[in-house]
Write a structure and sequence with these properties.
The protein has about 270 residues and is mainly alpha-helical. It has one domain. The radius of gyration is 22 Å and the shape is globular. Helix content is about 75%, strand content about 0%.
Length: about 270
């Protein structure tokens, strides 16, 4: 027999509506949770759409697609592994409820970050090495063919990845565990705008101005230019260096600010 309320609506319907409303309120108070819902369709559309535009423009462009894809995926894992290593290193402390213990030790913030970054370099070498070996053995693509110009590209991408992870750490400190999804997805939101697998000219014209202010865009242009066997584009390298330096300064400033707020407001109790 169906249980009815005084309004004549079945009680089960009201309970279902209440649960849905509860989740709607959570989403309203935590808009960063929309990231998973909205970002992936947008990323897929822009990424594969731009690859299609690049491949269809000319026979010359189609011939370069494999080169752009292989160089892009190897270099992409440099920035991705750098970002995810530092982000998950911090998140591990929250998952294990170890933040309070960590703050009671004499360890300074930069010492902790340096320790996590050091171990992250090991994971970075393993992850990127695996991708490079597969690209070489299966597709005969040698990332070392980029020459010594590869070194500044790798350094810049590592710096960018670590800077982005500092933004993620700051968001987790401020908004709690609900912001952890950004650790896995924020970089993929930047990927299609950065022209990792195609030139910026393949992007929709509305997106191009945004792409040109990102340090990732100019760094990947340098890598793609070297992969084509062309000389080092010093202008692009200079822009990449300058924009990366600005990003690193902003990331350190934001993470330090959020850490101060975290301590002053007692947010550490969320993880104890």
């Amino acid at each position: 027999m169906t249980e009815l309320t005084y309004t004549g609506v079945p009680a089960s319907v009201l309970r279902i509506a209440a649960i849905a409303t509860r989740h709607a309120y959570v989403l309203k108070r935590s808009p960063h949770r929309l990231f998973d819902v909205v970002m992936w369709p947008v990323v897929d559309t822009m990424l594969f759409g731009s690859i299609g535009v690049f491949a269809s423009r000319s026979a010359h462009g189609a011939a370069q697609v494999p080169l752009y894809l292989l160089a892009g995926i190897v270099l992409w894992h440099v920035v991705y592994q750098a970002q995810i290593a530092l982000s998950t290193g911090f998140l591990e402390e929250t998952w294990s409820r170890n933040l309070l213990n960590l703050f009671t030790t004499p360890t300074r913030e930069w010492e902790y970050m340096a320790g996590v970054a050091l171990f992250g370099l090991v994971k970075l070498a393993v992850g990127v090495g695996a991708v490079a070996v597969i690209a070489w053995t299966v597709y005969s693509f040698q990332i070392t063919s980029l020459g010594f110009g590869l070194l500044p590209v790798v350094v810049l991408l590592m710096a960018i990845g670590m800077a982005i992870s500092l933004f993620v750490i700051g968001l987790v400190l401020r908004f709690g565990s609900g912001a952890e999804a950004l650790a896995w997805g924020i970089l993929f939101g930047i990927m299609p705008i950065s022209g990792v697998f195609y030139p910026v000219s393949a992007l929709p014209w509305l997106i191009r101005p945004l792409a040109r202010i990102l340090p990732t865009t100019h760094t990947f242009v340098v890598g793609q230019t070297l992969a084509r066997g062309e000389p080092m584009p010093w202008g692009e390298l200079g822009i990449a260096l300058g924009t990366t330096a600005v990003l690193v300064v902003l990331a350190f400033g934001y993470a330090s600010w959020m850490l101060r707020v975290f301590r002053e407001r007692g947010y550490v109790t969320r993880y104890s």
